[in-house]
Amino acid sequence: MTTARWQGTIIAESDETTVVEANHYFPLASVRVEHLRPSDTTTVCPWKGTAGYWTVHVDGLSNPDAAWFYPDPTPEADHVRDRVAFWRGVEITD
Questions:
Q1: CA–CA gap between residue 13 and residue 10 (Å, rounded)
Q2: Cα–Cα distance between 39 and 93 in angstroms, integer?
Q3: Are the C-beta atoms of residues 10 and 69 closer than 8 Å to each other?
Q4: Which residues face 63 on adjacent strands?
Q5: Using CA atoms, how far apart are residues 57 and 17, in angstroms rounded to an integer?
């Protein structure tokens, strides 16, 4: 089981992550969305498309833009559709 944890709290947990460029993409259904807050940040990946971000929020603490997703990925990256990846101090363990 792969787990995403921040500040000791599990944010996502799944045995069906997809690894792309060393990042685990968790199925959206496995993410505890109560710990996510919308962000206006976007970035563009040449081969995956435009990424959106969420701020991870735990016990009154915020980790801005620590989760990202591709709402409408390119055909080459369709395998990350409806999946979420983490960074910025979010610990990923197997």
A1: 7
A2: 25
A3: no
A4: 56
A5: 22
- The DSSP 8-state label assigned to residue 89 in this structure reads T
Return the pLDDT at 86: 98
Q: How far lies 57's CA from each of 8, 43, 51, in Å?
A: 12, 21, 19
Q: Which two tokens stand for residue 30?
A: 């496995």
Euclidean distance between CA atoms 92 and 72, whole angstroms:
25
At 19, is the pLDDT very low, low, confident or very high (cuts 50, 70, 90)?
very high
Nearest CA to 51 among 30, 90, 13, 23? 23
Phi and psi at residue 34, to the nearest 5°: -65, -15
Q: Please give the Cα distance from 42 to 47 (Å, whole number).
A: 15
Count of residues for the chain?
94
